[in-house]
């Protein structure tokens, strides 16, 4: 068993920053917004429109993408190679100002988990708002040092032979986890498969739901 922590952005001497910087980043966002408007880069209405578009996204959008990748191996290859181009194929056009999105596939060899140790960076442009626990200090600080223990708190256990990699999001990079397709789903439609994909599984703290659990 092995675990590794991939880190982007600023960090302290231990490789992590566990301070809660929510207020700082909120004020920073307001300042940037004011500067963009002052310089004529964009208008307040344009910013509001884009914010509304992002807020309209939900885990259901991510689930549709995952389900399509499960049923179309060639599409999955394209999605993993270039997430933005892959999303565009399904009519998900990310804003030009959106951080780079990377899709990582969980397999029987490696299991990815996403976190933002600095604040709450999250692929909002495709999944909407992050869950409250994702933004909390408890998750952000523990997952990088004890990813398997963190998964257990969510009721998830994976084989010890599978390597666990924790991916640290940043202002420039966001991660969408492509969970493994559950067994016994060969005859399910794409729409049925999408119902097995959870928000937790696209963060990596959970797995996709089995057909039996979905109908229980």
Describe the protein.
The protein has helices spanning 22-38, 44-55, 59-71, 73-81, 83-89, 124-127, 132-135, 137-142, 147-153, 190-194, 199-203, 211-215; strands spanning 3-6, 100-105, 110-115, 163-168, 173-178. The chain is of the alpha/beta class and 216 residues long. It has one domain (3-20, 58-215): Nitrile Hydratase, Chain A (Alpha-Beta Complex). The strands form two sheets. The protein has a three-stranded parallel sheet, with no helix packed on it. A two-stranded parallel ribbon has the order 2-5. The model is unreliable at 7-20 (pLDDT under 50).
Helix and strand layout, with pairings?
Elements: E1 3-6, H1 22-38, H2 44-55, H3 59-71, H4 73-81, H5 83-89, E2 100-105, E3 110-115, H6 124-127, H7 132-135, H8 137-142, H9 147-153, E4 163-168, E5 173-178, H10 190-194, H11 199-203, H12 211-215
Parallel strand pairs: 1-4, 2-5, 3-4
Helix pairs in contact: 3-4, 4-5
| Strand residues, percent | 5-15%
Low-confidence segments, given as residue ranges, are 7-20
CATH topology: Nitrile Hydratase, Chain A
Mean pLDDT: 86
- The CATH homologous superfamily corresponds to Nitrile hydratase alpha /Thiocyanate hydrolase gamma
Rg result? 18 Å
Task: Name the CATH architecture.
Answer: Alpha-Beta Complex
Task: For this entry, give a set of tags.
alpha/beta, single chain, Nitrile Hydratase, Chain A, two-stranded parallel sheet, three-stranded parallel sheet, 216 residues
